[in-house]
């Protein structure tokens, strides 16, 4: 009973925060054209994804807490090079990894690793996608182990299309009652939050680690000699996660968003293609109280983009492998309008294709979800 009461209090606190931060999507600017063709809708259904003519045709889904729902929880892209087009990758909670390679879309799953686990936090080391998984003890009473392994950090081999754990919870000295529920990686130091849940209480602890060699070469069996692990604190973890003023954002991102009116309060989560954890920037110190707009951005070598929840998209640079857009000047478009209760939650670009995730949200729950594919060659000048 005590455990349920603690969770109830936690949900109330989270709910109050969610209400204060979340709101219906609003238009960032009024004079941005909406694209009306050259796109395809997809939604998640029956363990895979399915193309539909209109989003309204997607089958109604029951609502689940976002940690338990099938949804794109994290999306970004690898760094490009001269030999091949950069691919986009999306972590689909409960299903697997979506690979976007130009027009080609492939879902790579692992039923054991994704079973009843929350997956997300995509980052890249040496252009290899990594992400984390954990299982909520409140929603799942089964063992957290997979073939005697209690996974934390997963590597996706994009050539062989297989997934395997490279770090486990036990590698950090924790047992089966603990889960590493979140992390922040700045390119050097990993700072992690650990939740320990037993019959009497829930505790949080924090650890930091650095790898003595590339993580992609580490396995759970070699991790003990390959990591430098230290204890951390809630303050250090919060500091690693804390938003920074928008004035501290990279110059390319500031230039991209310069047309947004100065009195607009917004938050942007900025990824680096093929890089570390995203960094968050806010336009106002009181942003949570003012119900800010929310956007996801990606900085790549030849382009940068930012997508707001209402579908407003800012772009600058060249379409990968293609033309320079708008003579190198910023351009804005608006993705197709979503029904009430739906938002765009992130995006990636591969070759001339933009892939943007969408989901149906209500309070802290998610129902329908999927993604849209837009042919940028056809919609950008």
How would you portray this structure in words?
With 381 residues, the protein is mainly beta. It is built from six helices and 25 strands. It has helices spanning 2-21, 111-114, 223-226, 234-241, 251-256, 376-379, and strands at residues 39-45, 48-52, 64-65, 72-77, 88-92, 96-101, 104-109, 118-125, 128-134, 151-157, 162-168, 178-185, 190-197, 202-211, 227-231, 244-245, 266-272, 279-282, 293-299, 303-308, 312-317, 331-334, 342-350, 353-362, 365-375. Strands 16-18-17-19-20-21-22 form a seven-stranded mixed beta sheet. Strands 1, 2, 3, 23, 24 and 25 form a six-stranded antiparallel beta sheet that branches. The protein has a four-stranded antiparallel beta sheet with strand order 4-5-6-7, with no helix packed on it. The longest helix is centred in the first third of the chain and has 20 residues, at 2-21. 40% of the residues are buried.
């Amino acid at each position: 009973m005590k455990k349920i009461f603690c969770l109830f209090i936690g949900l109330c606190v989270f709910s109050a925060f969610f209400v204060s931060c979340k709101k219906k999507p609003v238009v960032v600017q009024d004079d941005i054209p909406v694209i009306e063709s050259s796109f395809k809708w997809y939604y998640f259904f029956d363990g895979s994804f399915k193309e539909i003519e209109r989003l309204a045709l997607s089958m109604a889904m029951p609502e689940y807490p976002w940690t338990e729902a099938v949804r794109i929880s994290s999306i970004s892209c690898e760094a490009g090079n001269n030999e091949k087009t950069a691919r986009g990758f999306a972590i689909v909670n409960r299903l697997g990894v979506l690979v976007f390679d130009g027009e080609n879309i492939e879902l790579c799953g692992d039923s054991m690793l994704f079973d009843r686990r929350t997956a997300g936090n995509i980052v890249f080391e040496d252009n290899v996608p990594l992400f984390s998984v954990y299982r909520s003890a409140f929603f799942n009473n089964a063992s957290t182990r997979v073939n005697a392994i209690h996974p934390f950090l997963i590597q996706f081999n994009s050539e062989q299309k297989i997934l395997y754990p490279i770090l486990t919870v036990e590698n950090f000295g924790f047992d089966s009652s603990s889960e590493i529920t979140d992390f922040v990686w700045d390119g050097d130091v990993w700072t992690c939050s650990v939740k320990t849940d037993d019959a009497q209480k829930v505790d949080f602890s924090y650890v930091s680690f650095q790898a003595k060699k590339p993580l992609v070469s580490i396995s759970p069996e070699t991790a003990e000699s390959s990591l430098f692990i230290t204890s951390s604190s809630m303050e250090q973890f919060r500091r690693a996660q804390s938003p920074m003023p928008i004035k501290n954002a990279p110059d390319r991102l500031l230039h991209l968003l310069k047309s947004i009116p100065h009195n607009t309060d917004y938050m942007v989560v900025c990824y680096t293609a093929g890089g570390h954890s995203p960094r968050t920037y806010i336009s106002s110190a009181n942003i949570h109280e003012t119900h800010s707009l929310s956007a996801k951005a990606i900085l790549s070598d030849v382009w940068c983009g930012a997508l707001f929840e209402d579908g407003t998209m800012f772009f600058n640079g060249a379409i990968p492998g293609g033309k320079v857009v708008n003579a190198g000047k910023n351009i804005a478009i608006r993705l197709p309008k979503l029904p009430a209760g739906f938002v765009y939650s992130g995006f990636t670009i591969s070759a001339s294709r933009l892939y943007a995730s969408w989901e149906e949200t209500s309070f802290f729950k998610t129902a329908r979800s999927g993604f849209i594919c837009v042919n940028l060659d056809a919609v950008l000048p």
